[in-house]
Amino acid sequence: MWSIANFLVIRTRYSGYAAGAVVGANLGMPSITDVGWSTYGTLRHGMVILMIGSLTALGISLAYAVTDTILARLSHANGDADRKARRLQTQVRLLRRVVTSIIVVVAVSAILFTFPQVQALGAGLLASAGIIGIVAGVAAQSTLGNLFAGLQLAFSDALRIGDVVVVEGEWGRVEELSLVNVTIKIWDERRLVVPVANFTTTSFENWTKSGTAITAKVMMPLDWEVPIAELREEAGRLITASEYWDGRSWSCQVVDITENGEVMVRVVATAANTGDQWNIACEIREHLIGWLVEHYPQSLPRNRTEVVAAEDEDAFRAAAASAAIRRAERDAPGSREEVPEDA
User: Fold this and answer.
1) CA 242 centroid distance within chain
2) What are phi and psi for residue 300, nearest 5 degrees?
3) Are 255 and 204 in contact (CB under 8 A)?
4) Quick one: which of 238, 231, 250 has its CA closest to 299?
């Protein structure tokens, strides 16, 4: 109860003062006999507009205070593993933006309809509402597309606030999901702002879609002289003793041989989340490089050149002479069959 009171004070501080002032001014407004009909009508119209605006702002502030209480409770359980809490948080944030937009549009419409000229125009507009709706839909096609894309993302559970994603080659965490854009906080503190519609039309990587467990992979190009058994034993000793390993599985295998003659060794280890995955990958890479340099420096990648020479100088000269004789016999004029000119 105290938590919601705190949010109410924060959210309704200014809107509450404004609404109270407008209500007080409305109660203290002079009568028609004191100021005259024209002045009274102007004051009354102005007070109606102020009343609609202030009460709308107060209502939105109250709604935000209530939803802030819900979001605060969800954030306490909003670890990477709590997918339900993050999904609810995303949906609450998006729904309150939609509701706020609708309330603002209704309030602005109510203020406009307090003017007699707009009321007369409204009757004509209602008669051609179908045409206006088509024109408005075409003009706002991009905006409406982003709106429905945001709702689709939130309620299809394809993307949630706090998800770890890879978009356009950048790794980061979803920080905000609005009706127009998705803000991704990249690992180096930059923000990548992507239109919501991009997430429904193009593919992206979501590393926490079904859970936070992930596998770290380290690729090491080494020489053929690398002792695989000893390397595997050292990798296992390191991984099983690491605080970042979640205890599920690990492996060390030769997975390929490159065109440059290098042996590709892949070391994999499971981790509980993306942070531990990055840390254990760096730990494996740093430790095995140092271990190979200290114990098996011949295993480090290197370029090899093989020089093939004749075993005996006389044999080399004989082979050269034989090749020269064969070339001479092939090029001699008598070695070819003469063809008559009148043939």
Assistant:
1) 29
2) -70, 150
3) no
4) 231
Q: CA–CA separation, 48 vs 25, rounded Å?
A: 11
Question: What is residue 299's DSSP assignment?
Answer: G
| pTM of structure | 0.56
Strand residue runs (E) in 128-198 = 164-167, 170-177, 181-186, 191-195
pLDDT 10s digits, 68-110 = 887 777 765 555 556 677 777 777 887 888 788 888 888 888 8
Half-sphere exposure (Cβ direction) of 204: Cα atoms closer than 13 Å: 28
Distances (CA, A) of 286 to 119, 238, 283, 289: 74, 11, 5, 5
Sole residue written with tokens 């390191």: 238
Provide φ and ψ at 262, rounded to 5°. -105, 145
Q: E strand or H helix at 235, and its extent?
A: helix 228-241
Query: Which residues on adjacent β-strands are paired with residue 166?
Result: 171, 205
What is the number of other CB atoms lying within 10 angstroms of the CB of residue 290? 10
Task: With residue 263 as reference, give the H or E element that holds it.
Answer: strand 263-271
Other CB atoms within a 10 A radius of the CB of residue 162 amount to 19
Burial class (CB in 10 A: 0-12, 13-18, 19+), 232: middle
